[in-house]
Amino acid sequence: MKKADKVAYDKDYAASKKNGKPFFPYAIYKDTIIAGLAILVVIVLAITVRVEMGEPVNPASTDFLPRPDWYFYFAFELLKIFANQNALTPVIMATFMVPNILIILLVIWPFIDRGPERRIWKRPFAMGTAVLVISGLCYLTFLGASTPEGIAKGETLPLTGLDAAASAGEAVYLANGCSSCHMIKGVGAPGPGPELTNEGAKGWDNAKMVQWMKVPVAPMPSFASLPPEDLENLSTFLNGLGTKYK
Ligand code: HEC
Asked: Confidence band (pLDDT; 50, 70, 90) for 234?
């Protein structure tokens, strides 16, 4: 701060202090009233507004696609940014490292930015950082919101040309939670498994596909416990995807 500025500031400050009211009890009193009103609104809403509880939890369900509430979409997307390494890295990075680095930055910011300037257009670095972080959060939230949803119970895949065996295979695919890791024609999860829309183009025969279902590469679980007939139909279905069944 320039010397003249400092003198002017000190004078201003002394004048304000003489005419002002003390923090205690005036500001505390006002804060208490507003906080009390806010709590009252929450209590009244809790008593009067009924919210839906949703279906009871079914731990045996395999077709449940875990999705967070919208305000956690940014963290949900962060998990995906750090995916494809090992199982722990996304969790450590997205739920611990990144949020905590941002919080620490926020806490130490007043010690880094010691400038007296308070007008926002004179603080391009601080403002730039704020805009960057907020737009980053908005962008990740948007990505999370626009990720394709899973497939609902009773729905089928948007495919044409299915014969009897392939339809039976599709039912096996839907009943075993494959779409929580794979996507077919935009339906299902974008990962961790590869998209299967054109799986038939690989030219595998059913024996090879059945073998894959029994002994796949992790993290895909083994489906060796499915009845042989189901595995056969599933393989027919998968081996025709993108060629016979589009
Ligand atoms: C937990 C997630 C998960 C589930 C559930 C899962 N998969 Fe996979 N799947 C994967 C992953 C990951 C790969 C890639 C493995 C590799 O090659 O490294 C894969 C690979 C595949 C492949 C080979 C794709 C290619 O072109 O290389 C097929 C076919 C397949 N899965 C079908 C299925 C079917 C059918 C089901 C349900 C019966 C299923 N998957 C369930 C994760 C999963």
From this structure: very high
